[in-house]
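Q: My labmate handed me this sequence with no annotations at all. I'd like to see what the chain might look like in three dimensions before we decide whether it's worth expressing. Could you predict it?
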Amino acid sequence: MIKIKSLQMKLMLIVSSILIFSGVIITGFSIYNANNGFSQMSYIAEDTTIGIISSKDSNGLDYIPALPVQDAKVIKEQFTCSSIFYLFIIIILGIVIAFIAISKAFKPMKELNKSIMHVDAYNLSMRVNECGNDDEISQLARAFNNMLERLEDVFHMQKNFASSAAHELKTPIAVMKASLQVLGLDEKPKLEDYKENKEVIEQQVEKLRLIVDDLFNLTSGMDIQFKEEIYLKAALDDIKQEFINLGITNDVELILQIGDIVLYGSHNLVYRALFNLIENAIKYNKIGGNITIYTVVNGELEIHIKDTGTGISKEALDNIYTPFYRGNDTRGLCKNGVGLGLSIVKNIIDKHKWIINVDSKLDVGTEFVIKVPKQDFKNLI
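A: Here is what I predict for the chain of 381 residues:
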């Protein structure tokens, strides 16, 4: 059995079938009715003639000679043959007209298909012609162009991300290589030289570890449970103690004004997001400054993280969630980090379908606000 793949040919087959079926039915009924008429006329024939009554004048009726019955049969056969002949003519003309009309209707579709075939990962900026009509094909072309725009943005972001990640990975590797080369220049290096190079390499290995961990957290596609109970105050107390244990508080006071609130989400991810925000606030704070974390419940929950640090410039504020972004001001330089902390925060908040906003003034401080919808938290007070 031949399988027709072309949509145009399938439509042509359907239209032709309907046309042939309708033509045969109509012609069949016409021939049937005509044959019945001729048969009834032959029944009323007198001898070899058919009497046809005709009004001649006001005095009465006359019989006029009619066609022989044999001639009526010939006419019947001629009518049948003519009907079948015209049926074929009409079907052929109908199929030709339908083919022309369908081909014209499918022309924009073929052009659209041809344009789509030329689109690949290297020319996502290409757009297909949307024609001028507001028909289904035009709507399809418009939807395809919108999809291309989104794909182009995503590919551009991935390209920049990969380039930035490669650059960040390249730097510590280059430092370690240079350190080993310097050590190799000395035929009899001293113990102090080994210790110095060991410290340099350890620092760069730790930086590589941080980069890899952050990249994994940022791009992880693993299944995540978003219905775990997270006791906000307990989580923040743990984060505060962790910074104290790590000795990276920089004499910054962490003030917690947290209600008795339970969040519903991924415990590890939320912990990571809060940790990154507080770590960022510590890094860019002033010596002896403070970080205030407080909550506001007004239908939804707001978690405020406010510092007294250096602030963020307008340029850096617009790009604050861009991976590896490096601005001109101190806050945008990924100080003691790899530039992925806030990108990870934004990714985590988006995964939970929460909202994060930021407000900052240079030399005054920065405030991040996480907004949690009412179905994702419970106030125990």
